[in-house]
Amino acid sequence: MGANRTRGAVAAARGAGDGRRNLILVVAVAVIAAAVIGGVVVTHARADVPQAGGTYATTVQQDGTVVAGSANAKATLDVYEDFLCPYCKHNLEDPYGKDMTKAIAAGSLRVDYHVLDLLDNETTPAGYSLRAGNAALAAAKAGRFAEFHAALYEQQPTEGQAGYTDDQLVDIGRKAGITSQQFADEVKAGAFDAEIRGQTDKARDSVNFKGTPTVLSGDNQVDISKAGWLSQLTKA
Questions:
Q1: DSSP string across 134-192
Q2: pLDDT band at residue 216 under the 50/70/90 scheme
Q3: Distance in angstroms (rounded) separating the CA atoms of residues 196 and 182
Q4: How confident is the model at residue 54 (pLDDT cuts 50, 70, 90)?
Q5: What is the CATH T-level fold of the domain 58-234, as seen in this structure?
Q6: Which range (2-6, 138-142, 212-216) has the least confidence?
Q7: Which residues contact residue 143 at a Cβ distance below 8 angstroms, ignoring those fewer than 6 apart?
């Protein structure tokens, strides 16, 4: 609509007499300027709004649990992960991550993700597990947890080396579809650091937690080395 208004103002100026043309040209310039400024304002406003339209819906509970999927799903799992954990990548995410994502999106699976910083001292410098976990919760709040979660495991740093910086995590988020300034601010501020540490402390105190990854169905440990475990749960 702004573009049509601009074109109309310019066309009117071209068809008028000299005196009237000058006046209309002034008006046309004002309309164009307003349209440009308005576009900038709208773009900035949209950038500050968390992005919707991700693969599946997520909510971040007060304790930092990321709830992915519908409460009416056939199966509910509790998944405990650390983004630096190689076993999380090789034993869970690489073989089953895409199928879990599809099941969550289809409404047959709900996953309560507990993001931990157990390996926070295993990078040089230390701190990557916490930074990545905080960024993942910020991504969940922005509606792009599935995309960001997958990206971090696909590009997982190696233990002992440097993990991603805050700026790099923000860039990974942008490539995953997160354009809000709020996401960048939360990543750089460590907005969910306390929640990640709380999740880690709670996991350590739980008799059901067996390290990362731990996958629970209720209080029962899921044997993710057993072929077909996911389909058995979602089709039950």
A1: HHHHHHHHTT-HHHHHHHHHHTPPPTTS----HHHHHHHHHHTT---HHHHHHHHHTTT
A2: very high
A3: 19
A4: confident
A5: Glutaredoxin (3.40.30)
A6: 2-6
A7: 50, 51, 52, 53, 54, 57, 58
Which residue, among 159, 168, 94, 180, has the nearest Cα to 131 in the 3D structure?
Answer: 168
Across 122-143, average pLDDT: 97
Bridge partners (DSSP) listed for residue 60: 66
- Confidence at residue 171, expressed as pLDDT on a 0 to 100 scale: 98
Going through 46-166 in order, the beta strands assigned E by DSSP cover 58-60, 66-68, 75-81, 109-115
Residue 156's identity, in one-letter code, is: Q
Closest residue by Cα to residue 124 from 157, 162, 158, 86? 162
Asked, as a colleague might, if the bond just before 213 is cis with ω within 30 of 0, I would say yes
Q: Distance between CA 232 and CA 236 in Å, rounded?
A: 6
As given in the structure block, the two tokens for residue 65 are 């649990």
The distance from CA 206 to its chain's CA centroid, rounded to whole angstroms, is: 27
Q: How far apart are CA 24 and CA 170, in angstroms?
A: 46
